[in-house]
From TrEMBL:
Molybdopterin oxidoreductase domain segment(s): 124-528
Record's signal peptide: none
Protein name: FdhF/YdeP family oxidoreductase
Keywords of the record: 4Fe-4S, Iron, Iron-sulfur, Metal-binding, Molybdenum, Oxidoreductase
Keyword presence, Cell inner membrane: no
Biased composition (Polar residues): 1-11
Upper classification of the organism: Bacteria, Bacillati, Actinomycetota, Actinomycetes, Streptosporangiales
Length: 773
């Protein structure tokens, strides 16, 4: 094991305040992606650790990539990963580890001044570390002492609801199941997770309309579709392997419409690095029609297309699937009446204001729709992080129901999940509002009565911490402080907690913004070999399309001080709760955990045997499999959603937070955004040149971005370089987590309570020169 010594760990932390800007790229992947992958692996892991890891990513007997949740096909390439997957694995497989010497050399106050990028570059956490109340430095503790500290605080709670248990989407099915079991045996449903901040809006809308809060399509369906609409998503950076699937679809004759406020290189041309042509610069043009929509205009766009379809139906044109509507849906008449009520001369001016699109383009989209028998709609955060996100996704469902595009090959809903097992965690019961059916099954299997009162989601957990109602905050993975909205409010709330505990693989900002006391517990990563008593263990994950498969770590852990997440939970369980009614000591055996999952969660029959099959198995999905809709009405529900769009005062812009190409969620791999032409820095704000001229923002000038919200609190992101960029008019974009400080905690989506990170009203003020961490 190679430790990071003090002299090496004090490497330069780039200021990130002087980014260089060139023209954005017009294609994605190709040779630059390959070279970037090789460089990242070489720098972090070296050949001895890096090469075996790369050859095992997403292989049937290897490990699931810790990045995105995009599925693998049955046939695998030798290099079954994308550039960002390589970066994620390279960081995880690093040959550097953090020991007590590093923490002794760096007080927490100093670490809190470092960037998230710098913190993540320091290596893998190697042993439990404890920050005592009033202490300036983390100090090493034994595993026994660390878990006893947590157990003492949990046993001392006056109510189990004084604890909050957060989950990252990287956590395996086995760990997630044990984690929720521990929280519920303790007596709380306070289980916020990263879904609350991303696809909660999707789950809310799909559960109401279709009865299942997941996507309904398979990887094979993409090749069978006549038309794919990709809305509010940038696959080239966030889900790069999706580009290969879209390329195959194009070659089979599928047309693609891209709906997005920014032109993104990946959806323009994809140069597949898996073939010689792609490496030589020959690519596939993916997008047939680009609709550059204003932020938050998607509900209005889909409403407009639906209105055109209804009007064509009224003229006697055969554009609707009348048999499907009559047999399988509810609410069509009310939906139709509402959408057709407004006169054209009032409706269309409002559509153009909300979307920034001319009627002619909407009619062109509609013509492509009526010329397509099988349609899939894919979306991500661009649709889910607005006040009106749930109505938007419900309107997407309306659009698909009109032509029967649910429950048949080549058609359906495709919410593209982010983190690699975020969907599986929810399947395993990580949810603050569990169903009675799930709790009944859990209680019957383990012989206790789980709590029924709903718990805190992410936003409400922050509020509870801010009110001083949380004595223990426990995070299974993730980087809560950096991932959540309203950074200063969240950090203040975290500091009001008695004990904060983070099960982590690498150092991040949540470890340096702590409660009165703090623990860091080093966990095995997806790439690490998981041994207990000399026997190798493996876990399972669920991808974005409902397929469950095994993940086997392949690398020797850097330290004996790292433990699996399941072991940490089970050891804590027996210390806090004893061995009755849950026999925690038995759950160190992952097969035993899977037996319990089989008994509790529908669709996991014969779990252990099916998970051992090389490609795993697909969970049942009633709308997809049987055109059966387990909703309140027993049918697929049409809904009335209006045509709301955000209002932006004069002199202001609507800002979206987004990722650079050198990051995944809050993990920053580097300071470049190759596809957007930005290098050596992240403090940039992308503004349409015409908007910039009207606001007096010169290209290359520096400005403070100031958020506006009704509470009157100042939210300021200081010293950002203005980049004139072809965004939609009235819109701007900047990277998170740096601009999470601008997202108000109380600005959330209706129903789902997801923060509105794509709908931030901002103004620009003279550069103050101050830079936060």
């Amino acid at each position: 094991m190679r430790s990071v010594k003090h002299q090496n760990s004090a490497q330069h932390d780039p200021a990130q305040d002087s980014p260089k800007v060139g023209p954005p790229k017009t294609s994605a992947a190709g040779l630059p992606a390959v070279l970037s992958s090789v460089r990242q692996v070489g720098e972090h892991a070296g050949v001895r650790r890096g090469l075996p890891a790369m050859l095992a990513i997403n292989q049937k007997r290897g490990f699931d990539c810790p990045g995105c949740a995009w599925p693998e096909g049955d046939k695998r390439h030798t290099a079954e990963f994308c550039e960002n997957g390589a970066k994620a694995v390279a960081e995880e497989a690093t040959s550097q580890s953090l020991t007590a010497e590093f923490f002794a050399a760096h007080p927490v106050a100093e670490l809190a001044e470092r960037s998230g990028y710098w913190l993540g570059q320091q290596g893998r956490l190697a042993q439990p570390m404890y920050l005592a109340e009033g202490a300036t430095h983390y100090e090493p503790v034994s595993w026994d002492r660390a878990l006893d500290l947590v157990a003492e605080d949990l046993r001392a709670l006056s109510s189990p609801d004084e604890a909050v248990f957060y989950t990252s989407g990287r956590t395996s099915n086995e760990a997630a199941f044990c984690y929720q079991l521990f929280a519920r045996e303790l007596g709380t449903n306070n289980m916020p997770d990263c879904s609350n901040m991303c696809h909660e809006s999707s789950g809310s809308a799909l559960t109401e309309t279709l009865g299942v809060g997941k996507g309904s399509v398979s990887l094979d369906d993409l090749k069978k579709a006549d038309l794919i609409i990709v809305a509010g998503q940038n696959p080239g950076t966030n889900h790069p392997r999706m580009l290969s699937a879209l390329e195959k679809a194009k070659r089979s004759g599928t047309r693609i419409i891209t709906v997005n406020p920014l032109p993104e290189a990946g959806m323009r041309e994809f140069r597949n690095p898996q073939n010689v042509g792609g490496l030589l610069g020959r690519g596939t043009e993916l997008t047939d029609l680009f609709a550059q929509i204003r932020l938050g205009g998607d509900l209005t766009l889909f409403s407009a297309v639906n209105r055109l379809l209804l009007q064509a139906h009224e003229r006697g044109e055969e554009v609707l699937d009348r048999e499907f509507i009559a047999t399988h849906t509810h609410g069509f008449e009310e939906f139709s009446k509402d959408l057709l009520a407004e006169p054209d001369d009032e409706f269309w001016p409002r559509v153009e204001r909300a979307t920034g699109l001319e009627r002619e383009l909407v009619e062109q989209i509609t013509a492509m729709v009526t010329g397509s028998e099988r349609i899939i709609v894919c979306w991500a955060m661009g649709l889910t992080q607005h006040k009106h996100s749930v109505p938007t996704i419900r309107e997407v469902v309306n659009f698909l129901l009109l032509r029967g595009n649910v429950g048949r090959p080549g058609a359906g809903v495709c919410p593209v999940r982010g983190h690699s097992n975020v969907q599986g965690d929810r399947t395993m019961g990580i949810f603050e509002r569990p169903s009675d059916e799930f709790l009944d099954a859990l209680g019957a299997e383990f012989g206790f009565e789980p709590p029924r009162e709903h718990g805190h989601d992410t936003v409400n957990a922050i509020h509870a911490m801010g009110r001083g109602e949380v004595r223990v905050f426990f995070a299974m993975g993730g980087n809560f402080v950096a991932a959540t909205p309203d950074t200063l409010v969240t950090e203040d709330a975290m500091r009001r907690v008695g004990l904060t505990v983070h099960v982590s693989t690498k150092l991040n900002r949540s470890h340096v913004v702590t409660g009165a006391r703090a623990l860091i517990l080093p966990a095995l990563a997806r790439t690490d070999r998981d041994l207990r008593d000399g026997e190798a263990r493996w876990v399972t994950v669920e991808d974005s399309m409902g397929k469950v498969h095994a993940s086997h770590g392949v690398l020797p852990p850097l330290s004996e001080g790292m433990r699996s997440e399941v072991d940490i939970i089970c050891d804590l369980g027996r210390r806090v709760l004893g061995e009755e009614p849950v026999a925690w000591s038995e759950l160190f055996d992952y097969d035993r955990v899977r037996d319990h999952v089989e008994a509790v969660v529908p669709g996991f029959e014969d779990f252990n045997a099916r998970a051992r099959k090389p490609a795993g198995f697909t969970l049942p999905h009633a709308p997809r499999d049987d055109r059966r809709f387990p909703t309140a009405t027993g049918l697929a529900n049409f809904t009335v959603n209006g045509t709301y769009a955000p209002e932006v005062p004069e002199g202001r812009l609507l800002l979206q937070t987004l990722r650079s190409h050198d990051q995944y969620n809050t993990t920053v791999y580097g300071l470049d955004d190759r596809y957007r032409g930005i290098t050596d820095g992240r403090r940039v704000v992308l503004v349409n040149p015409e908007d910039a001229r009207e606001l007096g923002l010169e290209d290359g000038a520096y400005t403070d971005i100031v958020g506006e919200w009704r509470d009157g609190r100042e939210r300021r992101a200081a010293h950002f370089r203005v980049v004139h960029y072809p965004t939609a008019r009235g819109c701007a974009a900047s990277y998170f987590p740096e601009t999470n400080v601008l997202v108000p905690l109380d600005s959330t989506a209706e129903v789902s309570n997801t923060p509105t990170s794509k709908s931030v009203v901002v103004r620009f003020e003279p550069d103050s020169g101050a830079i936060g961490s």
